[in-house]
Specification:
Belongs to the UDP-glycosyltransferase family. Its EC number is 2.4.1.-. This is Glycosyltransferase. Pfam families: UDPGT. This protein is of the alpha/beta class and 467 residues long. Helices cover 43% and strands 13% of the residues. A seven-stranded parallel sheet has the order 3-2-1-4-5-6-7, sandwiched between helices. The longest helix is centred in the N-terminal third of the chain and has 24 residues. The protein binds uridine-5'-diphosphate. Uridine-5'-diphosphate (UDP) binds next to helix 1, helix 13 and helix 14.
Length: 467
């Protein structure tokens, strides 16, 4: 197709690893369907992408950058409320400038759609101004997104905000919330913790952003109908919502190159270490790109892993410990020599697909959950924040492909859970179920599958809208 005639999508990810990744995957898929892609990163994220050497899949896209208006030394994701506020205040004007710049380029086809992260909903206004469809892409699970969307209802029914601190200890957190159709297992403890306090900026930000999804032309989710059917059905009553995932599978099954861009440099040497381990014997331990924990929690995990006697590969990011650098007890390091590998950042998808890996101790981020499913590796879930709590409950209670850990880390529990996951019948059954879900996800993403068809439908409707 001549360049000028190609449909042109502007892609606007939220500036964090777990959001850039699925936006990149979607861009690759759209590009393979003939789209010209302009990918708009914040300067901070773009610089990190370049520095980590993740440029392999970037050649086909046009990249534009916008400032996030925070000082270079700012922690960004560690002070997420300040990042969100700065984006909400400044990004709309920066986006307008990018759009104007693109309009002035004779070698760039006219914009035909704006695909924006659900947390960057102000881009819908730009789409309306341009007269093109605005597509809100939510990167969490459908059940997670649905809880954000249900915040006004939870307030109306009096569940949130918490009345006082005693709620945390008096059993209230275990209370089942039955007012949200489609989510049968929701308890107070599954609701994002920033919902407990109505004055919390992140609460207000997410309520605003999720309610804004109602004005989008299309709402996309990185899930598939067969996985989250009842939730998708309930959502469809309120929004033009489509499951188009797992994008990871959609990419791979259509023969596209892996578009993963890492914001950290991957320690590839862990793959050689994995090569020398027994099949299915290694626990992969990784809490994603944002989770922080206390020193005490790190130590409890460490001794739990030691006690399990299983080999493990543990990702400890330099900023994993709240306000300090991670220090593992010397005695522990001595004891696990020979059956442990520590990395500051791993090639996670490759690690999970390695035959030596048999279990994943995870923070239940949605990308990590989908990647684990894609590799057929059952999980132990220790969620950190946002929708990760409800992901834990779905993984353990609905899909039965993992075990839910308590919020308080206790070495004996870690040890016992690793053993349950890695040795014996229970682990085998979870493995069997996760492989069935992996196969279902492949069917959904393949030609003729639900997610494939949903994307086709959206692209056709968009063509109609642009005509
Ligand atoms: N990741 C990685 N190497 C690591 C840790 C994480 O490649 O050592 C990737 C992981 O594969 C996933 C993303 O970072 O794609 C984390 O996203 P997720 O939604 O799981 O969690 P978040 O980081 O947003 O909390």
């Amino acid at each position: 197709m001549a360049k000028q005639n190609r449909p042109h999508a502007l892609m606007l990810p939220y500036p964090a690893q777990g959001h850039v990744t699925p936006m990149m995957q979607l861009s690759t898929i759209l590009s393979a369907r003939g789209y010209y892609i302009t990918f708009v990163n914040t300067e901070y994220i773009h610089d990190r992408m370049l520095r980590s050497g993740s440029t392999k899949s970037m050649a086909d896209f046009r990249f534009e950058t916008i400032p996030d208006d925070l000082p270079p030394e700012h922690g960004r994701i560690q002070q997420i409320d300040e990042l969100c506020k700065s984006l909400a205040d400044n990004c709309p004007a920066h986006l307008e400038k990018v759009v104007d710049k693109l309009k002035g380029k004779s070698d760039v086809p006219p914009l035909t759609s704006i695909v924006y992260d659900g947390c960057m909903s102000w881009a819908q206004k730009t789409a309306i101004k341009l007269g093109v469809p605005g597509i809100s892409f939510w990167t969490p699970s459908a059940c997670g997104f649905y809880i954000y969307l249900s915040a006004p209802l939870l307030m109306e029914k009096g569940y949130i905000p918490l009345k006082d601190n005693s709620c945390v200890t008096n059993g209230y957190m275990e209370e089942v919330i039955s007012c949200i159709p489609g989510i049968p297992v929701l308890r107070m403890k599954d609701v994002p913790s920033f919902f407990y306090d109505a004055t919390n900026y992140m609460f207000q930000f997410l309520v605003t952003q999720s309610q804004a999804a109602m004005s989008a032309d299309f709402v996309l989710l990185n899930t598939f109908d067969e996985l989250e059917g009842p939730v998708m059905e309930a959502l469809r009553e309120r929004l033009p919502v489509y499951g188009i995932g797992p994008l990871l599978e959609a990419e791979q099954k259509n023969g596209l190159p892996n578009s993963f861009v890492s914001l950290w440099t991957e320690e590839k040497s862990c793959m050689e270490w994995l090569d020398d381990r027994e099949p299915g014997s290694v626990v992969y331990v990784c809490f994603g790109s944002i989770t922080v924990m206390s020193d005490q929690e790190l130590v409890e995990f460490a001794w739990g892993l030691e006690g399990s006697k299983q080999p493990f590969l543990w990702v400890i990011r330099p900023d994993l410990i709240r306000g300090a650098s991670a220090k593992l007890p010397t005695q522990f390091v001595e004891k696990v020599k020979g059956r442990s590998f520590f990395a500051s950042w791993a090639p996670q998808m490759e690690v999970l697909s390695h035959p030596s890996v048999g279990g994943f101790l995870t923070h239940s981020g949605w990308n990590s959950t989908l990647e684990s499913m894609g590799a057929g590796v059952p999980m132990i879930c220790w969620p950190f924040f946002a929708e990760q709590q409800i992901n834990r409950t779905y993984v353990s209670q609905i899909w039965k492909i993992g075990i839910a850990m308590n919020d308080v880390v206790e070495r004996r529990e870690v040890e016992e859970m690793v053993k349950r996951l890695m040795i014996g019948k229970e682990g085998e059954e979870m493995k069997k179920r996760i492989c069935e879900l992996r196969d279902a996800s492949i069917r959904a993403a393949n030609k003729g599958g639900s997610s494939y068809n949903n994307l086709e439908k959206i692209l056709m409707e968009m063509e109609g809208k642009n005509r």
